[in-house]
Amino acid sequence: MTVQLQRSEPMLSRYFDLEGHGTTVRTELFAGLTTFLTMAYIVVVNPVILGAAGMPIAGVAVATCVSAGFGSILMGLLSNYPLALAPGMGLNAYFTYTVVKTMGLPWQVALGCVFISAVAFFLLTVAGVRQLIMNAIPRSLFAAVSGGIGLFIAFIGLKNAGIIVANPGTTVGLGNLTAATPALAVLGLLVIAALQARAIKGAILVGILGTAGAAWFFGLIHGSSLSYHWADLSSTAFQLNIPAALNLKGGIGVSLVEIVFVFLFVDLFDNVGTLMAVTKRAGLVQEDGTVPRMNRILLADSIAMLFGALAGTSPVTSYIESTSGVSVGGRTGLTSVTVGLLFLGTLFIAPLVQAIPAVATAPALILVGAMMMGALAEVSWQEPGEAIPAFLTAIMIPLSYSIANGLAFGIVAHAVLKLVRGEARRRDWLVYLLAALCVARFIYLA
Q: I need a surface site. Which of 137, 151, 208, 235 has the fewest CB within 10 A?
């Protein structure tokens, strides 16, 4: 194994320009392993969330591994950046709780919407429109969407654990923490928090598995006949219903536009935030603030999203956990390729996630939501023009159970405040177009 690695080093060094980036093969491999361990929880969490939409859990688990593997390898080879990809947290919650459960679309149609969004993303990337949109939307709204999704995911986790329950008098209230399920979830939450505080790699994954083991030990869940074959991918792959998503037979109309809009913008925001965080941490940003090979990054992202829809999962996007690999020396696409290969290596155990109970994944959702809240620090809360749209965005996402509503409130508030403050400029035409579409959406929903 050592001899093979030594023989492959010159080729890898040339392709990824390791010397030019001041790194080595061993450093990149270790960085890839570090990133993988910090984001491997998605193999367990994503199937649980999409399973709530009626999707086969084993199939989604395999689709998650395949799409994360493909997306990360493609990103590494095409862009030569240490960016890892996988089905995005927040987007999977929107897929299940808004598109399927609230709008009532079958999951096959929802996958068709993901595919259409990916096609639109690809075309916008090729045409250079994604760059235009990125420049039009204020960075404070990017941060607000991330924070709002964090609240949304954490709320779902608290609800799944029974820590927060429905209350007719106050809408929501505290559950019975002495009951077995909430108590175990709280314990799992404390374990993961303690591991993260100690900077243990793979803390979330260890916490999930430990909580699941405790649930099985105390008899809180019961065994059932499960399939353990990665061939379960056939239950989700190519099951998307594109004709229904395109509304060829009538039915969803404006809803399709809304779904595509949210998938596009949330994925765009995720990518911009992750891209800036990773490239800054790695010292890969140019002096003028630009990121080299930006189009290749966006192209890889859109192709990965297309692949994910065909495999049978919610939108694939860049992961902020990529910064963990960068922190230990990852500087090139070899880090991403390593992450992708490790995800593919989990294919043979992926269907086993059917045995993971919701009480084990609930703490992970809560902690992931907490980490996403850090983006709100980027908002200038002393500046009303930034603070008000950001607050409305962040608070409306969990309270209305819709990322689309929060995003719409934020964009409209941003446009209105620019008008009343006399800061409207002709170059901001795209912001006002988006605001007008959001207002039209509210009218349609009413």
A: 235
Per residue in 64-117, pLDDT (tens digit) is 999 999 999 999 999 999 999 999 888 898 899 889 998 889 999 999 999 999
Residues contacting 197, CB < 8 A, separation 6+: none
CA distance 193 to 364: 10
* 207, 365, 412 from 362: Cα distances, Å: 11, 5, 33
417 assigned to some structural domain: yes
Residue 270 contacts by C-beta under 8 Å, 6 or more apart in sequence? 88, 90, 91, 146, 317, 318
**What domain range is 184 assigned to?**
22-218+232-445
For residue 426, what are its two tokens?
């002709």
For the entire predicted model, the pTM comes to: 0.78
Spans of the chain below 50 pLDDT = 224-225, 248
Distance CA(348)–CA(234), nearest Å, equals 14
Q: Is 11 a member of any domain?
A: no
pLDDT at 446: 67
Task: For CA atoms 333, 338, 339, 343, give the dihedral sign.
Answer: positive
Q: How many CB atoms are located within 10 Å of the residue 421 CB?
A: 10
Contacts of residue 352, Cβ cutoff 8 Å, sequence gap at least 6: 61, 226, 228
DSSP-derived secondary structure letter, 88: P
Domain count, the chain: 1
Minimal CA–CA distance to 322: which of 84, 19, 131? 84
> Distance between alpha carbon 305 and the CA centroid of its chain, in Å?
11
1 lies in some domain: no
39 closest CA partner among 149, 281, 150, 202: 202
Report CA-CA distances (Å) from 375 to 258, 324, 370. Answer: 25, 16, 10
- Whether residue 368 lies inside any domain: the answer is yes
Q: For residue range 211-262, list pLDDT tens digits in order.
A: 888 988 888 765 544 555 667 788 999 999 998 888 745 555 567 777 887 8
